[in-house]
Amino acid sequence: MAETADLVVVGAGIAGASVGFFAAQRGLRVVVIEQGLPASGASGFTAGYIRCHYANPHEAYFAVESWRMHSHWAEVVGGQSGFRRNGFLFIVPPALAPALAENVALMRQMGVPTEALDAQGVVLAQPFLSPEGIGAAAWEPESGFADPGDSIGSLLAGLRARGGQVRLETGPARLVMAQERVVGVRAGDIDILAPRVVLTAGAATRGLAAQAGVELPVFPMPIGAGLLRRQVAPGSPMPACTIDHTTEQWYRGEIGDDLVIGAGYEDSIGFSAGPEEGDKPFASPTREELVAGAARLLSRMPDLERAMPRGTWVGVDSRTPDGHAIAGPLPGVEGLYVLTGGNGKGFKFGPSMGRTLASVIAGEPFAASPLHPFGLERFTTGQAIRGAHEYAWGSFA
Ligand SMILES: Cc1cc2nc3c(=O)[nH]c(=O)nc-3n(C[C@H](O)[C@H](O)[C@H](O)COP(=O)(O)OP(=O)(O)OC[C@H]3O[C@@H](n4cnc5c(N)ncnc54)[C@H](O)[C@@H]3O)c2cc1C
User: Fold this and answer.
1) Is the ipTM of this complex over 0.85?
2) Which domain holds residue 366?
3) How many domains does the chain contain in total?
4) CA 41, CA 375: separation in Å to the nearest integer?
């Protein structure tokens, strides 16, 4: 059996839902294929930070665009993304304070409400934190976190309202090729024939691209997290979404005095581990790993001494060799596009990169697009994504 579409999107995480929605908004007949349920990949396990601070202008551009989209979600997409502005704090040791000041200045030029704080300023903004080891911090009071179910659900609802289809629980889709071009996607016993296909399948994008003869440097990236129940006075402020270079830990407040923190798999976030291969399952962090994550944070948040460990989870994101997304047309295969390489930060980039990729798919020239630096060709041309004032730790900056 065969059906037709203008565009088939493989994968209904934040990347696929975003490309699909904005392509449908441009009038394309879109079909989204998802092997499981929406947000059943990394997107469903995200901490959901929506913040702007990045040390290179290319990611900063898309981070700011997405932050603006979440700030006006009802108008831009419809429905809600669950965006909660509990603030974003990016803490660095003294040696990185000059770089941070430069990057805060860059963000301000881009219209982001942000300031550089010293250690005392951090404690004023977040009174439950200790100033120990803090050189400086970037503070974004208007940033926060969004809900993946709300975000992806509203994008897919908007896609359907514009005539698009979302096919769920299809099992793994495959490309349909004819004479070195992609002509559609096979999902179960249905072929959906389309002149354009976009792969937004997380780490599985590598295997799909290989079906078209393209080698994509994308690997599984397990990221562990867990919940701690803090023992704090009723009405205590919710901790901001925080990345703390000095403790090499991330955390944010959750409703009900809980704290979401990184746990287990720290090496994958810090990028000191080698790439993972294949599609083996990854176990959730153990209780001991969650406690170890909390112990690393103790010097920053002393009240964690009384915290109770709760559940943990792992989400498998996609990792690339330079820690940045791969987006755009795949060279040599007409009609085939990708958006993958979340690298532990792709939830925020999904809406803005998805919108820009939809405009490229609709005909805008890729070479002139702000997505161009994220094209696959950078790995052969050597055009690195770099800022003038990079930090040292992992891909998170
Ligand atoms: C614990 C954790 C915390 C994180 N925190 C943040 C954060 O605070 N901020 C941030 O910006 N990012 C964060 N991230 C990263 C972010 O969540 C991911 O980068 C992003 O959600 C990836 O979205 P995606 O759409 O590319 O991939 P996914 O969400 O993995 O979606 C891919 C989809 O493709 C489907 N699929 C795969 N193969 C096929 C196939 N053959 N056929 C059909 N369907 C297929 C999968 O089922 C899946 O639903 C975090 C991730 C984790 C795990």
Assistant:
1) yes
2) 2-45+148-218+322-381
3) 2
4) 23
